[in-house]
Structure formats: C-alpha cells, structure tokens
C-alpha cells in the first residue's frame, strides 16, 4: 500500500526506546517499498508512478511494461529531467522496475541529491521479477582465447584488472607458494633479516635461503607483488605491495611502498606470499595479467571452450553521493537487485602509517591510522552525504573490495534481507567522521543479512560488519561467516576523548558468527578498539543473544591466540547478555574490568535456556534461504 505521505524515521531516540523505534522504522520502510499492483482504494492511499527497464528494452521506448527502457541510467535521467521527484510533483513513491536479466555496467551508476525522493516518499529501483533476478554486472567477458602452453590460455583485455572470475567463481592471482585450497590463504613463506638492526624496515623483505628459485628472472620478478601480514607475529593487517627490485643472490626483495608495520619483530618474521607473475602460473584457477601488453593469461578449471571468464569494468557499481553534507541524497531504495563483479586495486595498505600522513588537518591526526586512505575508499555500493538510503533484498557478490561502504556523512542507512558473498574486503563498512568534527554518521540499521566469505582479497582486518566512530546503530538477526579475522567490529581510537567519540548507543543482537579468525590472531570474532577511553565507563553499547562458533586459525599463524570476544584498548562501556562462544585458542572473552556481563558461557552458571536460539541468525522471511541451506550452516 502506498500512502500520500510517509512517516520519516526518527533520530536520535533515548536508549529505552531506541531499539523498538528503529525496528518499527525498518518495518515502515520495508512496508513502503512493497508495491501495490492496483489503484488506490481508500482515502490516503496513492498509486506509485511506475517505469520499466529490461535488458532487451530501448532507451527510445516509453518506459512502460510493454515498452521498457534499456538502462537504469535512462530511467534516472528521465525522473531528473521531468522533475518527477521534486516536492511540487511527488505525491507518492516512484518505482523503477528492472525486469529479470543482466545489465552490464561499463561505468559506475551514479545517484546524487538530484535523485532523492521528496515529501517523505521514496524513489525505488527494484528487481520486478523477484530478489536477485535483475543483475547489474560490473564485468564483461574475455574472449579470443588462444593456447599458450601447459594448459594456459591467453587473450587481450581492454583495461587493467586486479581480479578475475570464471563461471561466477573468483580466480586466484598466480602466486608462490600455491594456496592450499580456494577458500584458504595459506600456505606462506616467512620473512627473515640478515642483521638485527634492520628489524624496523618496512620496504625490504628477506627470504629464507632456498625459498626463491635462482632460475627466476629478477627483471620479471620485479614486476610481481607481495601479500604480507606485516608486523612479524602481529597478524593484524595484510598489505599488497608491488615489488621494486629483487636481489636473488641475497634473497632480498625491495618494495615500492611502505607496509603498515615492519617485517620483523622479536618473535617472528612476517608471513607472505608472492603473486602476480607468469612465473607462478601453474595450477587451474590461476591468472596473470601482463599490464604492459594488456594480455591476460589463465589456466581454466575446466575446458576453456565452456568457461565464461569475466574481467571487471568498475570498482564501484552503485555510487550514491550527495553533493555535500548540506545537500544529501535521500529517500532512495534499491530493492532486490543483484550486484556482481567489481575490481580491486594495484596495491593496498590499510590506513596511513603515521598520524598526519593524510595531509589533512584534523583534531585527532592519529585517526589517519584508523581510516582508509583516499585511494581505497570504495565498495561495490559506495554511499556518502546521504540520509534514509535503503538496500533491501540485495545480492552483492564477487566484489574486488567492500560490499557496502559508507563514508563520513550518512544517516539512517539500512541494509536488510540481503546476501553478501565472496567479498574482497568488508561486507558492510561504515567509516564515520574524524573524531570531534561533527557527529554525522548514525542511526544505521543492518538486519536480517547473510554475509559470507568476505576479506577474500584483504584478509587482514576483514569484518562482516565494521563500524568506525559511528553510533545509534542496530546490527541484528544476521549470519556472518568465513573470515580471516573479525565477524563484527566497532572501533575508534584510544586517544579520543569521550566528548569527541561518536561510537555510542550501538546494539548488536541475535547474531550468529561462524568461522571467524581463520588466519589471524590477537583478535575476537566480536571486536572493539578504543571505544570508551575514560572513566567511569558508562554502559552505552549493548550486545545480546549472540552465538559465536569455533575461532580456530591456520596453523601458520604466529600471533597470540584467538578469542570469541576481544575488548581491545578502550573496549569498555559494554553490556553483554546471553552470549555463547565455541572453541578458541586463547580466552573466550578478553576484557578490562569495565563491562557488564550476564549469562555468558565463559563464566560460571551459564544458563543456555536463556538463549533464544530460534531467533538468532536470519529471519524466516530471508529471501535467499536456499543459499544458507546449501552452505550447510546451522
């Protein structure tokens, strides 16, 4: 049912009312996105303005069901040009129906404040034939394959790409040593140093004797890159850095850029592998791109004649961005769309190495070490300067980096009923503002989602849901599965004063986290850092009804152990109630004595009857339930 007016979501609300109001808001929004196929039948109801897009349509058509347009961009531009979403004209929602089929995305689809809904109404882009049926594909087929040698084939590509896909499965960048399986990052080599005084270096890496093949051509190897858990035994972040030059006789590799941490510490060298060279292409499912020649080499898993091999065309499929914090894009809903395939980057390091390195002046320059560098601020869906944006029933898969990335000024972003799978970075990542510079990111609702196999290209620091310096959020009723590191994380920094810290009044409830910590240490499946740094540590973040499965890392991981819950520096001011954790290699719960814990299975007297197991995880109306069943998840 569509009504002539919509009730806007409230913000903020007191703790005693916040969860019910947020839940009610999500239900109102979901109800508003449910289409009525008939005309208005009662006073106060309205019929939405509807348009149609189809893969076999034409942008010269009328945009009706029988005469559909071809592109989502044309539908957007028609609404803009005709002013249909302006306050003077918008009396009900506007719905753009995308018929089932594939929509190639050769250029990021942009939405800005000109595309907002008005007077409380939504502009809705939905998959007309059901969730996941209309697919926006950020890749195109690679054709013209010719046999190279040893089961390897080669073809020309139009643009440089940093990931590749065969029949909907990510290919592995040719690497040494070969990975154990397609869902594990190990095995690794371990760096060393020739002299103790070189322990602090971040651009030199030494291999152990015999690990680098002396028959390799150093000039060819110098075009490859290194993926490294820098920091020695600190398995916290992974860097992907191009090689500058190689001295095979000395076993020394010089890198183009600094890694996050030094390659050695007193306990260990860093785990690493080499990648991105034809020298390493030796097993099915691996590829190498010669960037100078614009030629890709691939060893298919099956017959090359039957394989559909896709190369990404964009890093971001949907970009939703208002012109400024004062001109936000708002009241936009994306309903049931499938977004598949996006690209990665040539090199990656999480954040800047030192405070102030961003070059921007901030009250807390230390936060430069906590936030993505400018070049890496993107996801398959990127959102900034927004209010009341909803992603519902989405299927986001095979991304180069984050699935959904919300940066700085965003309020009331909702991601619900969505499947995020095979994600290069984080599933959902919210980076709020720099501390003390305005509380501009809050009131988000992430509920009823299945987030699985994330951090595929950036295993270090990967989280299913990561929140940085943002508050009044609800993360609930979700299954989060298969990560080298975190399930859920909430972070600020220990230097931040209470009045400048916006990570307040967050609720995490009815969550199931499985297979976290698969390749890292000194972590928790639920993790916080620098959230409450000053006494008396008032309770203002809430965690309840959470089940965490076993948190067991790869045997090569040299760091301290894995935990179910890890409240790192400043991890105070939390209430935990009804929490269950499986097997770990350290403690199920590590924290300072500054949190409230009731009925958790790391303490005495745990009562499992208080666990609401039937409500933990996705809800019965989750639209991609068969994918969960197929994964064998309880």
Summarize the model shown.
Pfam families: Beta_helix (PF13229), GH141_M (PF21231). 6% of the residues lie in helices and 33% in strands. With 634 residues, it is mostly beta strands.
Care to describe what's here?
This is Right-handed parallel beta-helix repeat-containing protein. Residues 1-42 form the signal peptide. InterPro entries: Beta_helix, GH141_ins, PbH1, Pectin_lyas_fold, Pectin_lyase_fold/virulence. Residues 380-507 form the Right handed beta helix domain. Keywords: Signal. The chain is mainly beta and 634 residues long. Helix content is 6%, strand content 33%. It has 4 helices and 46 strands. It has a 28-stranded parallel β-sheet that branches. Strands 15, 16, 17, 18, 19, 20 and 21 form a 7-stranded antiparallel β-sheet that branches. A 5-stranded mixed β-sheet has the order 10-11-23-22-14, with no helix packed on it. The longest helix is centred in the N-terminal third of the chain and has 18 residues, at 15-32. It is globular and about 75 Å long. The two termini are 35 Å apart.
Annotation keywords:
globular; disordered N terminus; signal; 7-stranded antiparallel β-sheet; mainly beta; 28-stranded parallel β-sheet; 46 strands; 634 residues
List the helices and strands and how they pair.
Blueprint (H helix, E strand, L loop, with lengths): L1 E2 L11 H18 L12 E2 L2 E5 L18 H10 L12 E5 L2 E4 L4 E3 L11 E5 L6 E4 L1 E3 L4 E4 L2 E5 L8 E2 L2 E2 L1 E2 L1 E2 L12 E2 L13 E3 L11 H4 L3 E4 L10 E9 L4 E4 L15 E5 L10 E5 L4 E5 L9 E4 L5 E4 L7 E7 L2 E3 L38 E14 L2 E3 L4 E10 L2 E3 L2 E3 L6 E4 L9 E2 L2 E3 L2 E3 L12 E4 L5 E8 L6 E4 L14 E9 L8 E7 L11 E8 L13 E6 L6 E8 L7 E2 L5 E5 L24 H6 L4
Parallel strand pairs: 3-4, 4-7, 5-8, 6-25, 7-26, 8-27, 14-22, 25-28, 26-28, 27-29, 28-30, 28-31, 29-32, 30-33, 30-34, 31-35, 32-36, 33-37, 35-38, 36-38, 37-39, 38-40, 39-41, 40-42, 41-43, 42-44, 43-45, 44-46
Antiparallel strand pairs: 1-2, 9-24, 10-11, 11-23, 12-13, 12-24, 15-21, 16-21, 17-20, 18-19, 18-21, 19-20, 22-23
């Amino acid at each position: 049912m569509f009504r002539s007016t919509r009730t806007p979501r409230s913000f903020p609300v007191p703790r005693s009312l916040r969860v019910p109001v947020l839940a009610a808001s999500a239900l109102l929004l979901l109800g508003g996105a449910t289409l009525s196929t008939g005309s208005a039948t009662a006073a106060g109801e309205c019929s939405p303005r509807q348009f149609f897009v189809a893969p076999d349509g034409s942008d010269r058509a009328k945009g009706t069901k029988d005469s559909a347009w071809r592109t989502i961009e044309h539908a957007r531009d028609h609404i803009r040009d005709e002013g249909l979403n302006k306050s003077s004209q918008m009396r009900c929602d506007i719905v753009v129906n995308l018929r089932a089929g594939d929509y190639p995305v050769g250029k990021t689809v942009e939405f800005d404040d000109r595309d907002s809904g008005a007077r409380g109404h939504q502009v809705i882009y939905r998959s007309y034939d059901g969730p996941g049926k209309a697919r926006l594909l950020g890749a195109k087929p690679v054709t013209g394959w010719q046999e190279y040698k040893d089961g390897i084939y080669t073809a020309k590509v139009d643009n440089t790409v940093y990931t590749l896909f065969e029949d909907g499965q990510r290919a592995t960048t040719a690497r040494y040593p070969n990975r154990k399986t397609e869902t594990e990052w190990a095995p690794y080599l371990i760096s060393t140093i020739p002299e103790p005084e070189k322990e602090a270096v971040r651009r030199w890496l030494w291999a152990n004797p015999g690990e680098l093949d002396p028959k390799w051509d150093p000039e060819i190897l110098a075009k490859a890159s290194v993926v490294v858990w820098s920091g020695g035994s600190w398995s916290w972040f992974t860097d992907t850095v191009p090689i500058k030059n190689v001295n095979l006789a000395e076993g020394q590799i010089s890198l183009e850029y600094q890694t996050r941490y030094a390659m050695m510490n007193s306990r260990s060298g860093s785990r690493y592998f080499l990648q991105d060279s034809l020298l390493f292409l030796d097993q099915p499912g691996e590829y190498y791109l010669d960037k100078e020649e614009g030629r890709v080499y691939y060893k298919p898993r099956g017959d090359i004649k039957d394989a559909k091999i896709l190369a990404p065309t964009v890093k971001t499929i949907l970009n939703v961005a208002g012109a400024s914090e004062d001109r936000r894009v708002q009241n936009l809903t994306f309903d049931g769309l499938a977004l598949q395939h996006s690209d990665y980057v040539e090199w990656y390091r999480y954040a800047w190495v030192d405070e102030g390195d961003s070059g921007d002046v901030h009250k807390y320059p230390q936060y430069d070490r906590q936030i993505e560098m400018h070049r890496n601020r993107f996801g398959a869906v990127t959102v900034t300067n927004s209010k009341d944006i909803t992603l519902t029933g989405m299927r986001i898969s095979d991304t180069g980096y984050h699935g959904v990335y919300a940066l700085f000024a965003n309020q009331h972003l909702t991601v619900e009923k969505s499947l995020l799978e095979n994600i290069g970075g984080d599933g959902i990542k919210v980076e709020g503002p720099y501390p003390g510079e305005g509380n501009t990111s809050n009131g988000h609702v992430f509920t009823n989602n299945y987030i699985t196999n994330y951090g595929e290209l950036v295993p270090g620091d990967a989280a299913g849901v990561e929140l940085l310096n943002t508050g009044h959020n609800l993360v609930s009723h979700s299954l989060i599965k298969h990560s080298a590191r975190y399930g859920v994380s909430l972070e600020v920094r220990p230097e931040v004063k209470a009045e400048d810290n916006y990570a307040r009044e967050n609720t995490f409830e009815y969550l199931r986290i499985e297979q976290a910590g698969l390749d890292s240490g000194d972590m928790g499946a639920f993790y916080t850092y620098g959230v409450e740094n000053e006494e008396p540590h008032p309770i203002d973040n809430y965690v309840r009804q959470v089940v965490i499965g076993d948190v067991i890392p790869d045997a090569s991981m040299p760091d301290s152990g894995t935990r179910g819950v890890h409240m790192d520096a400043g991890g105070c001011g939390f209430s935990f109630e009804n929490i269950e954790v499986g097997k770990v290699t350290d403690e199920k719960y590590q924290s300072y004595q500054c949190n409230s814990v009731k009925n958790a299975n790391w303490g005495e007297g745990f009562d499992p009857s208080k666990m609401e197991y039937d409500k933990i995880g996705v809800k019965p109306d989750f639209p991609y339930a068969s994918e969960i069943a197929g994964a064998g998840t309880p």
